[in-house]
Amino acid sequence: MSLAQAALLTVVTAPGAVFIILASLWLLGWVPSERTLSRTTGLTFAVCVLGLCHLVWIFATTNVAAITLTFGNWFAVHEYRFPLVLMADRVVLPFLAMTVVLSGLIGQFSATYLHRESGFFRFFLLLHLFAFGSLLAFAAGSFDLLIGGWELVGITSVLLIAFFDQRPAPVENGLRVFGVYRACDIGLLLAVFTLHKWAGSASFAAGMPRLAGTQSTVVCLFLLLGAAGKAAQIPFSGWLPRAMEGPTPSSAIFYGAISIHAGAYLLLRAQPLLAETPAASICVIVIGAATAICGTLAGRASADAKTSLAFASLTQVGVIFGEIGFGWKSIAVAHILGHALVRTLQFLRAPSMLHDYHRMHSAIGGEVSRERTEDLLPEQVRVWLYRWAFDRGHLDTILDRWFIYPLLELSRLFSRLDSMGRFSVERRAKPSMPLRSPAEQGVE
Amino acid sequence: MAGTEWISGARSLDWIAIGAPWLAAAGLRALRGHARAVGFVAALVSVAASALRLLAAPRGESLYEALMLLFSCLTAGATLVLPKRDCDSGTVGGILFLLGATLLAYSSENLLVFLIGWVLSTIPFIMKSWLGARSWRPAASLWLSNLVLAGAIGLIYEAGHAFSIDTLSGRSPGGMLAFGLLVTALIFRKGISPAHAWVADAAESSPPIPTALLLNGHLGALLVAKLILPLFPRTAGNLFPVLSWLAMATALYVAIRALTENSPRRLLAFLALSQSACILAGLESRTPEGITGALVHWFVVTISTMGLFGILRLLEVRFGENLTASHYLGLAAHSPRLAVFFAVFGLALVGLPGTLSFCSQDLLIHGTLMSHPVTGVVLPIATAMNAVSIFRLFARLFLGRRRTGFTHAADALPRERWALAAGVLFVVLGGLFPNLIVAQRSAEADRIGATQTPRGPLGLISTRIK
Predict the structure, then answer these.
(1) ipTM of the complex
(2) CA B253 – CA A295 distance, rounded (Å)
(3) What are phi and psi of A424, to 5 degrees?
(4) Is residue B416 within 8 angstroms of chain A, CB to CB?
(5) pLDDT less than 70: residues of chain A
(6) Using CA atoms, how far apart are residues B97 and B452, in angstroms rounded to an integer?
(7) Residue B110 dihedral angles phi and psi, to the nearest 5°
(8) DSSP B59
(9) Residue B463: exposure state from Cβ atoms within 10 A (0-12, 13-18, ≥19)
(10) B198 and which of B56, B138, B177, B455 could share a cystine (Cβ 3.0–4.6 Å)?
(11) What pLDDT shows up at residue B406?
(12) Any chain B CB within 8 A of the CB of A286?
């Protein structure tokens, strides 16, 4: 293993190793102090930054196209193989850098922000798992391995949305996000399956597999489904404002920086296929444009800072999708990096936004001009648009009415069918009282 | 000579593995004391005998030995996790009786012995005074499966004049009628739709840990691997896709059904049923990936659902039996380790990366889609719904405002913690180093696949098994 490969391995696995160590110690009964946790986090990401610097140096000083690290097959059954390949090229490197630097920054920020919060340890544990998942997804040399990181990002995202579990709303919203993620991940699974079936492999470490026209379109559309779910593109945009229930640092890193751009990264990886399939490229552009318009309108009708920032993120990611659809790969990567950094800063400043505004108003001696572009529109159009934007493009309503409610109704129907003929041989009183303590119930 | 010695040695180990729990069960009926210790020691003897049997088994022919070891370990774990309230001689005796019967079915190479194992494993759950459910459906389904299997084996003997599975292999003894009866027995025992309702009834009104053991014996899947595929390769080739569709329909039906279920026990039963229906679909897929995925998933489902039922029972004992998923109970604040174990087992059941089920689901979905390009998509959809249901159950049980009524509610006790940690270690280490398990199961999948013939008119593709 060369030094560059060792650096790549360190960058990807260090947060995962720390997660496993911390989780194991906790299960054995040891809970580290806040200071230990924040120092461990700082050290972990400092090591990652060092490794990353080495990788950047290699790419800056040599003409190497990609650094690849192969561990053989994770498992194999006859011709079906799950290759364990890590890869860093000039597309991956910015994403690795973004993840490492922002995760480290968020770790340091959260040490103060979540001081004495009851879920402090849980947050840092999930931050490490999230960083590992993201790095694995970005450095994966095949779509098979990418799914592994992708799913870890999804589950940590959901657990952090439900972080403040004393209120039902964050948990309910977490469940909703989880449902959308899992539904859209089916697209990714099908894309990997079709790649294996038609190209014999889902690996892209040695270049994307070549496919015929229709096959390429089918794979791209499946990938688009997966990407759209993770990037909250239309028609799945409804989950993003719900995800704002999580702590601000996690919102910043997930929905301002890394997780929200994972979908765009997936499409960047599939760019060689997309470039050959105009139909799929048009779908990407249309979805991106529609999301950008919907995002900017909904953001203007949002009442709270984090939700407007979420919609602003959505708008930019929609534009990035459009750029990828047009094949402007480098512009898209630069856009992602710039957007991630600015949006993270905005999210982190969101809790003190009012304070910032007050300071700005006192500095300029009054309020900022309230003239807006939409004031140029006729009153009737404005009202209609406002209603549309206020309900966030009716996206959740449509999803509920056409998909979720019918599914739940079907479930209730099945329940009624199952309960036909269900009677006890001995009648048993159904406990209906609220949960009580064992002492109250009179049991030992 | 060496072969004869190996067979007689293996037989002795089988009898030790089967006899020890039965002797202990009989002893418990007489002694009525130290139930946990007796149960644990008897299960450990089975574990040791099964492990020796597995070590001596030739490569690619160790599926049943591995299953024996798994089930013995599971029973040993169950005796540790069993709460004090349930740890009477009747329950532990029932568990040990079930262990002996299941091991008998696993180790049998004879139809009659298989039938005896099959029937005996149901006895504790048919007798209402032992571990039987209050609802009529579990007993009825188990009775029906016993009678139908006995009828099928009777027909097979009538046509083939032998009970040995090796002798009857590939001869389709008893023809379509025997095949149909075997499939019917499988449907009733495994809880394939439309005979699925008994599983949830049993989980709700029987002791949950023994019931989880009964479900995780997976004798229905064993019937497919041990009898149906070897005995009826041609008939199975023509008609098995129908059973596969039924299995996929069951996986989807119960996954949808679970979405609005509020009883934790029923919900877990639905999830277990949905995931174990995937095993059947994989076994039928006729692709090496699908069969291997099914065999690996067999292990994952068994351990995960056992862990989930065990944790649920521990919660019921600590917080009352009226747990519900209709509102947030906030139990994580009282039992954080149980919450983590529950989350890991739950996510392991539905394919979390880093657990063994990620690999098994990957193979299973790949194999099933290869075999059924259109209907195969049902499996990932069902798994996605199951993931939502397990997360909902986790959230409702463990998240929410901390309850104030409990002052002495304990988190996982050391004996519970060790047993649950062993299960978590298996699914996590298996997920990190899956090739150790996948390679073994792949060799066995080849053996099972070799008994299958190319698909007939109802099949969608020709076989890829070589």
Answers:
(1) 0.89
(2) 37
(3) -85, 145
(4) no
(5) 369-371, 421-444
(6) 34
(7) -140, 135
(8) T
(9) middle
(10) B138
(11) 62
(12) no
Q: Are B319 and B406 in contact (CB under 8 A)?
A: yes
DSSP codes, A293-311:
HHHHHHHHT--SHHHHHHH
Extract the tokens encoding A82.
């799950």
In sequence order, which ranges of B320-434 are alpha helices (DSSP H)? 336-349, 356-371, 378-398, 414-432
Give the pLDDT of residue B408. Answer: 61
Q: Is the dihedral of CA A221, A226, A232, A236 positive or negative?
A: positive
Residue B126 C-alpha from the chain's centroid = 18
As a whole number of angstroms, the distance between CA B438 and CA B131 comes to 35
Q: Which residues of chain B have pLDDT under 70?
A: 1-9, 32, 236-237, 404-409, 449-466
- In this prediction, residue B131 carries a pLDDT of 80
Asked if B251 and B386 count as a contact pair (C-beta separation under 8 A), the reply is: no
Q: Is the Cβ–Cβ distance between A248 and A163 less than 8 Å?
A: no
Question: Residue B31: its pLDDT value, please?
Answer: 75
Q: Closest by alpha carbon to A302, among A241, A374, A365?
A: A241
Task: Report CA Rg, chain A.
Answer: 24
- Phi, psi dihedral angles at A81 (to 5 degrees): -130, 145
- Residue contact B403–A158, C-beta within 8 A: no
Number of neighbouring beta carbons within 10 Å of residue B323: 22
**Interface touch A412/B351, C-beta < 8 Å:** no
Distance from the Cα of residue A2 to its chain's centroid:
32
Phi first, then psi, for residue B136 (nearest 5°) are -80, -20
Please list, residue by residue across B278-309, b when 16 or more beta carbons sit within 10 angstroms of its beta carbon and e when fewer do.
bbbbbbbbbbbbbbbbbbbbbbbbbbbbbbbb
Q: Which helix (H) or strand (E) holds A69?
A: strand A66-77
DSSP, collapsed to helix, strand or coil, labels residue A263 as: helix
Query: At how many degrees (to 10) do helices A143-161 and A213-230 cross?
Result: 20
DSSP per residue, A209-224 = PP--HHHHHHHHHHHH
Question: Which residues in chain A are closer than 8 Å to B359, comparing Cβ atoms?
Answer: 74-75, 82
- From the CB of residue B59, how many other CB atoms can be counted at a distance below 10 Å? 9
Contact with chain A for residue B49, Cβ under 8 A: no
Is residue B410 within 8 Å of residue B286, measured between CB atoms? no
User: How many CA atoms lie less than 13 Å away from B304 in the CB half-sphere?
Assistant: 31
A178 and B435: CB-CB below 8 Å? no
Residue with tokens 């206020």: A390
**Is A27 in the B-facing interface, judged by CB distances under 8 Å?**
yes
pLDDT at B390: 95
Locate A188 and state its tokens: 């990714």
A175 and B391 in contact (C-beta within 8 Å)?
yes
Tokens of B73: 């370990």
pLDDT tens digits along A41-51: 999 999 999 99
User: Chain A residues with CB inside 8 Å of B408's CB?
Assistant: 438-439
Q: CB distance from A433 to chain B under 8 Å?
A: yes
Q: What CA–CA distance (Å, rounded) separates B233 from B454?
A: 9
Distance CA A91, CA A205 (A): 12
Tokens of A158: 């959901």
DSSP single-letter state for residue B1 = -
Which tokens belong to B440? 């073994």
Q: Distance between CA B390 and CA B345 in Å, rounded? A: 10
Distance CA A174, CA A239 (A): 9
Q: Could you give the count of Cα atoms lying within 13 Å of A194 in the half-sphere of its Cβ?
A: 21
Q: How far is CA A67 from CA A4, A57, A78, B109, B350, in A?
A: 7, 12, 28, 54, 33
Who's near A214: CB < 8 A, 6+ residues apart? none
pTM for the whole thing? 0.90
pLDDT at A443: 39
Placement of tokens 């504790």 in the chain: B124
Per-residue exposure over B374-390, b if at least 16 CB sit within 10 Å of its own CB, e if not: ebbbbbbbbbbbbbbbb
Q: Measured in whole angstroms, how far is the alpha carbon of residue A156 from the centre of its chain?
A: 9
Can you give the pLDDT at residue A146?
94
